[in-house]
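Figure 6 in text form: structure in, sequence out.
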Protein backbone atom coordinates (compact mmCIF):
# COMPACT_ATOMS: atom_id res chain seq x y z
CA UNK A 1 0.00 0.00 0.00
CA UNK A 2 1.34 3.42 -0.98
CA UNK A 3 2.43 6.12 1.44
CA UNK A 4 -0.08 8.90 2.10
CA UNK A 5 1.45 12.38 2.40
CA UNK A 6 -0.58 15.52 3.21
CA UNK A 7 0.84 18.92 2.23
CA UNK A 8 -0.48 21.82 4.31
CA UNK A 9 -0.02 25.57 4.47
CA UNK A 10 -1.70 28.93 3.97
CA UNK A 11 -3.13 30.06 0.66
CA UNK A 12 -0.20 31.47 -1.28
CA UNK A 13 2.35 29.37 0.60
CA UNK A 14 3.26 27.43 -2.54
CA UNK A 15 1.58 24.07 -2.01
CA UNK A 16 0.88 23.46 -5.70
CA UNK A 17 4.47 24.30 -6.65
CA UNK A 18 5.82 21.93 -4.01
CA UNK A 19 3.44 19.11 -4.96
CA UNK A 20 4.35 19.50 -8.63
CA UNK A 21 8.05 19.33 -7.79
CA UNK A 22 7.69 16.25 -5.62
CA UNK A 23 5.62 14.44 -8.24
CA UNK A 24 8.25 15.20 -10.90
CA UNK A 25 11.11 13.89 -8.78
CA UNK A 26 9.36 10.72 -7.65
CA UNK A 27 7.98 9.98 -11.12
CA UNK A 28 11.44 10.41 -12.63
CA UNK A 29 12.70 7.92 -10.05
CA UNK A 30 10.23 5.35 -11.36
CA UNK A 31 7.65 5.66 -8.59
CA UNK A 32 3.91 5.64 -9.16
CA UNK A 33 2.37 8.84 -7.75
CA UNK A 34 -1.23 10.06 -7.46
CA UNK A 35 -2.44 13.45 -6.23
CA UNK A 36 -5.64 14.89 -4.77
CA UNK A 37 -6.35 18.58 -4.20
CA UNK A 38 -8.88 19.68 -1.59
CA UNK A 39 -11.33 21.32 -1.61
CA UNK A 40 -12.44 19.69 -4.88
CA UNK A 41 -14.00 22.80 -6.39
CA UNK A 42 -15.95 22.01 -9.55
CA UNK A 43 -16.24 18.32 -8.62
CA UNK A 44 -17.89 18.38 -5.21
CA UNK A 45 -21.23 20.04 -4.45
CA UNK A 46 -20.34 20.53 -0.78
CA UNK A 47 -17.00 22.14 -1.67
CA UNK A 48 -18.71 24.45 -4.16
CA UNK A 49 -21.34 25.49 -1.61
CA UNK A 50 -18.57 26.26 0.90
CA UNK A 51 -16.75 28.35 -1.71
CA UNK A 52 -19.93 30.23 -2.60
CA UNK A 53 -20.55 30.95 1.08
CA UNK A 54 -17.02 32.31 1.46
CA UNK A 55 -17.69 34.64 -1.47
CA UNK A 56 -20.92 36.01 0.01
CA UNK A 57 -23.70 33.58 -0.98
CA UNK A 58 -26.03 31.42 1.14
CA UNK A 59 -26.93 34.02 3.74
CA UNK A 60 -25.18 33.58 7.09
CA UNK A 61 -23.84 30.08 6.35
CA UNK A 62 -20.20 31.16 6.53
CA UNK A 63 -20.75 32.58 10.02
CA UNK A 64 -21.10 29.06 11.37
CA UNK A 65 -17.68 27.54 12.05
CA UNK A 66 -19.05 24.03 12.37
CA UNK A 67 -21.28 24.22 9.29
CA UNK A 68 -18.37 25.34 7.12
CA UNK A 69 -16.10 22.68 8.62
CA UNK A 70 -18.73 20.04 7.92
CA UNK A 71 -19.01 21.06 4.26
CA UNK A 72 -15.26 20.70 3.73
CA UNK A 73 -15.24 17.42 5.68
CA UNK A 74 -18.06 16.00 3.52
CA UNK A 75 -16.04 16.84 0.41
CA UNK A 76 -13.18 14.68 1.70
CA UNK A 77 -15.52 11.94 2.89
CA UNK A 78 -16.93 11.68 -0.62
CA UNK A 79 -13.40 11.11 -1.94
CA UNK A 80 -12.41 8.48 0.64
CA UNK A 81 -12.92 5.52 -1.68
CA UNK A 82 -10.87 7.21 -4.41
CA UNK A 83 -8.03 7.89 -1.98
CA UNK A 84 -7.99 4.29 -0.78
CA UNK A 85 -8.03 2.98 -4.35
CA UNK A 86 -5.18 5.31 -5.35
CA UNK A 87 -3.21 4.18 -2.32
CA UNK A 88 -3.52 0.59 -3.47
CA UNK A 89 -2.36 1.41 -7.01
CA UNK A 90 0.51 3.81 -6.28
CA UNK A 91 3.70 4.11 -4.28
CA UNK A 92 2.81 7.60 -3.02
CA UNK A 93 -0.45 9.54 -2.79
CA UNK A 94 -0.09 13.28 -2.17
CA UNK A 95 -2.95 15.27 -0.67
CA UNK A 96 -2.81 19.02 -1.35
CA UNK A 97 -4.68 20.09 1.81
CA UNK A 98 -6.41 17.52 3.97
CA UNK A 99 -7.97 17.11 7.42
CA UNK A 100 -5.38 19.27 9.21
CA UNK A 101 -6.59 22.28 7.22
CA UNK A 102 -10.02 21.92 8.80
CA UNK A 103 -8.43 21.68 12.24
CA UNK A 104 -6.17 24.70 11.69
CA UNK A 105 -8.66 27.07 10.07
CA UNK A 106 -11.51 26.38 12.46
CA UNK A 107 -9.38 26.46 15.59
CA UNK A 108 -8.11 29.82 14.32
CA UNK A 109 -11.64 31.06 13.67
CA UNK A 110 -12.61 30.18 17.25
CA UNK A 111 -9.28 31.43 18.64
CA UNK A 112 -8.56 27.98 20.08
CA UNK A 113 -5.24 26.13 20.32
CA UNK A 114 -4.57 22.57 19.19
CA UNK A 115 -5.98 21.20 22.44
CA UNK A 116 -9.28 23.00 21.87
CA UNK A 117 -12.64 21.35 21.28
CA UNK A 118 -12.86 21.95 17.53
CA UNK A 119 -9.58 20.15 16.75
CA UNK A 120 -10.84 17.09 18.61
CA UNK A 121 -14.19 17.37 16.82
CA UNK A 122 -12.54 17.51 13.38
CA UNK A 123 -10.39 14.48 14.23
CA UNK A 124 -13.33 12.45 15.51
CA UNK A 125 -15.57 13.45 12.59
CA UNK A 126 -13.19 12.92 9.69
CA UNK A 127 -10.92 10.12 10.89
CA UNK A 128 -13.49 8.50 13.15
CA UNK A 129 -17.01 8.83 11.83
CA UNK A 130 -16.11 9.27 8.14
CA UNK A 131 -13.22 6.80 8.27
CA UNK A 132 -10.79 8.87 6.20
CA UNK A 133 -7.30 7.35 5.98
CA UNK A 134 -4.73 8.99 8.27
CA UNK A 135 -1.65 10.37 6.47
CA UNK A 136 1.67 8.63 7.07
CA UNK A 137 3.37 12.05 7.02
CA UNK A 138 2.50 15.72 6.81
CA UNK A 139 4.50 18.50 5.17
CA UNK A 140 3.96 22.07 6.39
CA UNK A 141 5.19 24.90 4.20
CA UNK A 142 7.00 27.25 6.53
CA UNK A 143 6.58 30.38 4.40
CA UNK A 144 5.99 33.45 6.57
CA UNK A 145 2.27 34.33 6.57
CA UNK A 146 2.97 37.87 5.33
CA UNK A 147 4.68 36.42 2.25
CA UNK A 148 1.87 33.93 1.61
CA UNK A 149 -0.79 36.64 1.94
CA UNK A 150 1.01 38.92 -0.50
CA UNK A 151 1.26 36.08 -3.01
CA UNK A 152 -2.48 35.43 -2.65
CA UNK A 153 -3.21 39.14 -3.19
CA UNK A 154 -1.01 39.27 -6.29
CA UNK A 155 -2.54 36.11 -7.68
CA UNK A 156 -6.07 37.49 -7.26
CA UNK A 157 -5.09 40.81 -8.84
CA UNK A 158 -3.80 39.04 -11.93
CA UNK A 159 -6.61 36.51 -12.29
CA UNK A 160 -10.25 37.51 -11.80
CA UNK A 161 -11.25 33.86 -11.43
CA UNK A 162 -9.13 33.57 -8.27
CA UNK A 163 -10.69 36.33 -6.19
CA UNK A 164 -9.78 35.98 -2.53
CA UNK A 165 -12.48 34.54 -0.27
CA UNK A 166 -13.46 35.73 3.20
CA UNK A 167 -10.77 33.62 4.88
CA UNK A 168 -8.02 34.83 2.56
CA UNK A 169 -8.99 38.49 3.04
CA UNK A 170 -8.80 38.21 6.84
CA UNK A 171 -5.13 38.79 7.64
CA UNK A 172 -5.61 38.30 11.38
CA UNK A 173 -7.21 34.93 10.71
CA UNK A 174 -4.34 33.92 8.43
CA UNK A 175 -1.83 34.73 11.18
CA UNK A 176 -3.77 32.60 13.66
CA UNK A 177 -4.07 29.74 11.14
CA UNK A 178 -0.30 29.80 10.66
CA UNK A 179 0.22 29.61 14.42
CA UNK A 180 -2.15 26.63 14.76
CA UNK A 181 -0.49 24.83 11.84
CA UNK A 182 2.90 25.22 13.51
CA UNK A 183 1.55 23.84 16.78
CA UNK A 184 0.02 20.86 14.96
CA UNK A 185 3.46 20.23 13.46
CA UNK A 186 5.17 20.58 16.85
CA UNK A 187 2.97 17.97 18.50
CA UNK A 188 3.00 15.63 15.49
CA UNK A 189 -0.79 15.70 15.13
CA UNK A 190 -1.88 12.24 13.84
CA UNK A 191 1.54 11.54 12.21
CA UNK A 192 5.08 12.94 11.86
CA UNK A 193 5.31 16.43 10.32
CA UNK A 194 8.11 17.88 8.18
CA UNK A 195 8.59 21.65 8.01
CA UNK A 196 9.57 22.72 4.49
CA UNK A 197 11.21 26.13 4.52
CA UNK A 198 12.64 26.23 1.01
CA UNK A 199 15.35 23.61 1.38
CA UNK A 200 16.40 21.66 -1.68
CA UNK A 201 13.30 19.83 -2.85
CA UNK A 202 15.33 16.70 -3.62
CA UNK A 203 16.37 16.55 0.03
CA UNK A 204 12.73 16.76 1.09
CA UNK A 205 11.72 14.07 -1.39
CA UNK A 206 14.44 11.81 0.02
CA UNK A 207 13.40 12.48 3.61
CA UNK A 208 9.78 11.65 2.89
CA UNK A 209 10.58 8.29 1.34
CA UNK A 210 13.08 6.99 3.89
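Output sequence:
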Amino acid sequence: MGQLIAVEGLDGAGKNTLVTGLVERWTNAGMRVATFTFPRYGRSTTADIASEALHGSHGDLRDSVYAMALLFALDRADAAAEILAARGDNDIVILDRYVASNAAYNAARLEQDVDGEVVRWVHDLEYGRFGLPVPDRHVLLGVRPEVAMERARSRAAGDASRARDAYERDSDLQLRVDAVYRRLAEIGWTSPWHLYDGEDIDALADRLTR
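Caption detail: The radius of gyration is 16 Å.
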